[in-house]
Amino acid sequence: MQKKVIVFSQIDADVLATLQAQYHVVVINPKMGDVNEQIRQHVVDADAMIGAGRLLNETNLAPAQKLKIISSVSVGYDNYDVAYLNQKKIWLSNTPHVLTETTADLAFTLLMSAARKVPSLDQWTKQGEWKRTVSGAQFGQEIFGKTLGIVGLGHIGEAIARRGFHGFNMNILYHNRREKLELAQPLNAQYRSLKDLLQQSDFVVVAVDLNAESKALINAEAFDLMQKHAVFVNISRGSVVDEQALIDALQQHKIFAAGLDVYQKEPLQQSPLFDLENVVTLPHIGSATAETRQKMVKLAYQNLVDALEDRVPRYLVNENFSS
Ligand code: NAP
Q1: In Å, how far from its chain's centre is CA 131?
Q2: Pocket test for ligand 1, best of 101, 209, 237, 260 (most atoms within 8 A of CB)
C-alpha cells in the first residue's frame, strides 16, 4: 500500500511533485478550515509529515497510529513537543547547516540597518524630508572595529562572528552555557558571562536555540545592563526575549536600536514595535532566500525518505527508536 505523507506548510513545487509521484500526499490548506482539525483527521493513518511553522503536539497528533517521522523544514524545532514525540516513538528531523550562512547574512543586515537607521532614513528621504545636509538625528552608530557580543556561539552565531571579525575588524565576545574553544579561537573570541557580555558589547546578537534555559533569557535586567548606544539583534526565536521589556527599553531609549526577525507571537500583526523608529522589524526571513529554502526542503525530503525506507534520517533530533 502507498505510504501517506502530510504536507503541513507550503513547500517547493518540485519537491511536492516528487513526493506526489512516490506517495499518497495530503496537503494541509488553511483556506479549507481549521488546520489542527485537518491534521487530526489526516494523521490517523499517515506515515510521515513534512513542513514548518506549525505547533505539533498531543493536541493534533494524538490520533496518529503509525506516524514514523515529522520532517521539519527548519533548523529550530521548538514548535514540536519532543517529549511527546519520544513517547509516541515518532522521529523528528531538521535541516541544519544549509541555512547557516544565509541566516548570518540576515543577522548582519539587521545589525547594519538598525545601527545606520536604514529603514527610517529611507522613508525620510522618500517623504521629501532631505532638505539640507543631515545632522545628529540622522546619525547612526559606527560598526567597524566595535565589540560584537554573540549570545549562542553555535553554527549561526559563529558565522555571524566570522562576518564581524573578518569583515568589520570587530572584537568578538560570546556567551554559551559551555565555552566553545574550537569555534572561538580562530576568531579570537573571548568567553564572557552573560552579564559581562551585555555590559561590554556595542552590538548584542542573539543566536541561541529556544530551550528551557534560553526562554526569556534577555529580560528587563538584561536591557538595563546594555550600553545606551548598544544595538540589539534577535534572529533566534521570539521567546528568547521578553518582548515587553524590549519595547520598554526601546521606548525609553535604554539602548540605541534593535533589529528583529522573530517575535513571541508570529505572524506579528499588531505591536507597539510598529510605532517605534528605533527598531527594524522583519517577518522571520532568516533563511528566506530561494536557494537556501530549496536546499532546506531537499534535505527535509531526504530525511523523510530515509525514515520511510527504514534508514535513520541523517538529521534526527530526538531518540533513535530503531536501535
Ligand atoms: P546551534 O548550532 O545549536 O547553536 C545554538 C547555540 O546556542 C549553541 O551553541 C548553544 O550552546 C547555545 N545556547 C543554547 N541555549 C543557551 C543558553 N541558555 N545560553 C547561552 N547559550 C545557549 O544552532 P544554530 O544552527 O546556530 O541555530 C540557532 C537557532 O537559530 C535555531 O535553533 C533557530 O531557533 C534559530 N534560527 C532562526 C532562523 C530565522 O529565520 N530567523 C533561521 C535559522 C535558525 P550551549 O549548548 O553550549 O549553550
Answers
A1: 39
A2: 209
